[in-house]
Amino acid sequence: MKVQIEDVTVYFPYDNIYPEQYAYMVELKRALDAKGHCLLEMPTGTGKTIALLSLITSYTLSKPQSPVKLIYCTRTVHEMEKTLAELKLLHNYQVKNLGLAARILAIGLSSRKNLCINQRVLAAENRDSVDAACRKLTASWVRSKAAENSNVRTCEFFENYERAASGALLPPGVYTLQDLREFGKQNGWCPYFLSRHMVQFANVVVYNYQYLLDPKVAGIISKEMQKESVVVFDEAHNIDNVCIEALSVSVRRQTLDGASRNLTRMQQEIERFKATDASRLRAEYNRLVEGLALRGDLPASDSWLANPALPDDILKEAVPGNIRRAEHFLHVLHRLVHYLKGRLDTENVEKESPVSFVASVNSHAGIDQKTLKFCYDRLHSLMLTLEITDTDEFLHIQTICDFATLVGTYARGFSIIIEPFDERMPHIPDPVLQLSCHDASLAIKPVIDRFQSVVITSGTLSPIDLYPRLLNFHPVVSRSFTMSLTRDCICPMVLTRGSDQLPVSTKFDMRSDPGVARNYGKLLVEMVSVVPDGIVCFFVSYSYMDDIINHWNQHDILKEIMQHKLVFIETQDVVETTLALDNYRKACDCGRGAVFFSVARGKVAEGIDFDQHYGRLVIMFGVPFQYTLSKILLARLEYLRDTFQIKEGDFLTFDALRQAAQCVGRVIRSKADYGMMIFADKRYSRHDKRSKLPSWILSHLRDAHLNLSTDMALYIAREFLRKMAQPYDKTGGSGGRKTLLSQEDLEKMGDNILQGMVY
Amino acid sequence: MNNGGKRRLRENGDRGDDDDDDMEEDGLEAWERTYADERSWEALQEDESGFLRPIDNKAVHHAQYRRRLQSLSATARIQKGLIRFLFVVVDLSKAAAEMDYRPSRMVMIAKQVEAFIREFFDQNPLSQIGLVTIKDGVAHSLTELGGSPESHIKALMGKLECSGDGSLQNALELVQGYLDQIPSYGHREVLILYSALSTCDPGDIMQTIQKCKKSKIRCSVIGLSAEMYICKHLCQETGGSYSIALDEAHLKDLILEHAPPPPAIAEFAVANLIKMGFPQRAAEGSISICSCHKEAKIGEGYICPRCKARVCELPTECRVCGLTLVSSPHLARSYHHLFPIAPFDEVPPSRQFEPHHRLQKTCFGCQQSLRNPSNKFSLYVECPKCKQPFCLDCDIYIHESLHNCPGCESFRPS
């Protein structure tokens, strides 16, 4: 259908549209018009992605004089594929309506692991070794060697791609990763390098957050994106954490040992080169004297490291004299590693600012700040000179240089924390030195500054006013949309008391109380007998989950649960968890019924959907606060308070509640779905906690459901499940609120739709 | 009358002798009942003048009824299976002991099944029913396929106790074994009344479902508490219907929905000639040996036209020569399923003020006034053919029991 939004005709590939999608597009369009950034919250299952894609592509089509490029960032490869599939549908529709003029080029960009088609390279098991295996075949020196000696192996796909040179182009269309691989196989071109090359010409690029936020990667991939781009961060409720992680480094003893090994090996290499090909080292020295302007003219296949600091912060100057010579640089690194080893041997927890850390490095190891800052680039250059291809072996020394450069570059927003052991296991020495970034706005700042519009969107962005403060930018539009439903298909409840009317909570002083564990157990036992198929339970942490399952096991509660449903548990092992999930699904499918125990902030809570019968009920046991005694968290809280005036309590509650919302949001993925959500903790009934839940949950949280005990919740659950099992009219019927609009409806209703959709 | 009926009556109005009513209903004092079971205050609403009144559910119920009728009439003109072989599977796992229906799910189900069996034979005199129970993870055949309502009801009432888990797969396997032997003109159906929320199966239930699909067994499930994926899947695959009961009255409606014959499955829709006998009633006072009870009986029986054996009830299959024995009214009763009367049209409120309509103030069926006490027209319907108005009660009566429109019948072309 075609929708007219102000001066833009939006081509929407479906015959009907949800009112909230329309409202979403209107807001988005206004943000694009204003060339500003925006924050949009809309519940999952309402077709956010297609609304976004339709509007932005149509916007470009209607304004051919100033084309906008769309950069769409997703969290996982799976989401990327989904997005591209939707885009393909939309593209076909647009081409059908507008003819060939509407053709665009849209590609997904991912790591070699997902794009490579060379069987020998793909045999490697993880991402780093695939990268290394690829480099072994495609590095410029390997290829020049191969030109002389036919026994040296190269990658035929890459060779073909290089031979085709500028002729290697993708015809317009939408390419998923699968399509890219197919195309590569057909033409014999390497899909990875082809897509890397095509990024500059594509109208739509879909890739991972890291490619834009992590300066190490962004420097290579994203630096050529033009300013007139719209950047979309989908599922961006955790964007601040992604930003922080991109700039944080942790160093353990293994890292340091590995780094020492790396250094020894590099030493040998240097000796070898001195004996055979001393001119290379001299050439490198000369290049360094002239400055670091080397990255521009490197062949694409060789650029694999970029500075971890942000582009603006790298000085355009020559490498300091004391590390220009390879062996001198190695000495510096030796001293640095040695110094860090010494620091790790501490007995106490230490916290330091980068400034004092740099001062101490200077006095103890004789390395000044400027030298530190150049470590990463110098290492990069050295490794290229030494023609090292098995880069996965050298991760340790890279981590060290990464650390050094960040410490040398930033004086604010970071702190260095050395912990001799894990707080929770004080008897096992496991020293770790962490450089943690506290300021999420650092990593996102270049993106915000550089691009015309940045759209941050997710199902849970509440409270929506906190994100601009955390990320330090000014959105022109920030809105939260409701979900228009034909029936009340979500049923959130706050359970404050157990069956014996005593309060339940995972508060620190109550959590070890056996009464609470028993009450939680009783709740689950009762629920498994009334809820069909799948139930998902989220606990606040692995250790709490272990405790409570132990307790339930001792008191036969687990056995009672098993009479009704099978029990599956998430563990820290990915393979084990995947297997558990698989069997959980099977048990739900065949009617046996199953319960899945999982942890908030875990992999399952973030990425796995429990839609339809896989999740009829989700129970959130407790409020998933972060581990508040963690030194890193404390340091970050302090920084947030001092810099952004965000109170500690506010931030902790916000963070806990967004995790809780994320967990319970797993069960409802579309409008035809239904599910219940139980927040089992007395603290949820307090206004300051509850009000931070996303508005689409809050609007269904009736006052009567705010202070329930187990038996009341049980009754409500029974009634809800009966009601939801009844047949219903999917379009919302003729009268009352319409939830599915056709083109006619839209034209008739005009702007009235907007009211009521926005909070 | 049962509890549900009574409750429904109260919702619909007249709350006059409410109090004594409640007392005898469950034998419980008001304070003994948990608030959970009877949220009586929820059945109240405030009217314009601030008085509390019971919610008028009539329009809502009628809307539901109409929706059902519409969906049925959509399939009205297609061939229907009049000779049905239906297995009723009653879940007697421990979930059936739950008390959310009074006095327990099990007893209530038994009661409804009894009503269903009678209604079923009333509407499908040529069909047969068998009973199966699920208990302790296994399925038992309670009665074999037969045409006598009494024997089924007796067998069911005698076996009302529950334990263990339910197993859908075992029940399906058992039923499939029986139904596979049915001749091809018969329609194979299973109606499962499932209390439990899980099924403990010995093998892969998906294969069993495919097997049922292959032998063209139409499986329908009525759940008592919540929607289960596997049941939904089963019904979708085999072309049955899946529904969940809200309360006792709703359950009754749902069960009785299965009484009229379902549309015939396309592959079966070949016309077949079936040999049938129309036995004569035995003379009063004549003594003969009954072939079904194996004892001498006086009068009150039917004589098979082919082998002259005596049977007690019709319809049945002759024990001696295997001929299907029916009476002609039975055939006639099955007939209306093929030619149902069209659903009546609802009269929109706007049209009620047209002068033409102002004249007719009474229902053509019962002659009651169509105005409610506040002198406004309440909702009413009219026949699309004869354009006579009918009240909602008559609408239901005409479609469900009478199967004739009084307006059209009394209309004679001059």
Task: Give the amount of beta strand of chain A, in percent.
Answer: 5-15%
Quickly give the CATH architecture of the largest domain in chain B.
Answer: 3-Layer(aba) Sandwich
The multimeric state of the shown protein is heterodimer
Number of DSSP helical runs of chain A: 32
Largest sheet of chain B: 6 strands, mixed
Percent in strands of chain B:
15-25%
Tally of individual domains of chain B: 3
The CA-CA distance between the termini of chain B, in Å, is 47 Å
- Percent in helix of chain B: 25-40%
| The CATH homologous superfamily of the largest domain in chain B | von Willebrand factor, type A domain
Report the radius of gyration of chain B as a whole number of Å.
24 Å
Total of domains of chain A: 3
Strand order of the largest sheet of chain A: 6-5-7-4-8-13-3-14
Q: What is the CA-based Rg of chain A, rounded?
A: 28 Å
Low-confidence stretches of chain A: 292-305
Strand order of the largest sheet of chain B: 5-4-3-6-7-8
- Looking at CATH, the homologous superfamily of the largest domain in chain A is P-loop containing nucleotide triphosphate hydrolases
| Computed structural class of chain A | alpha/beta
Structural class of chain B: alpha/beta
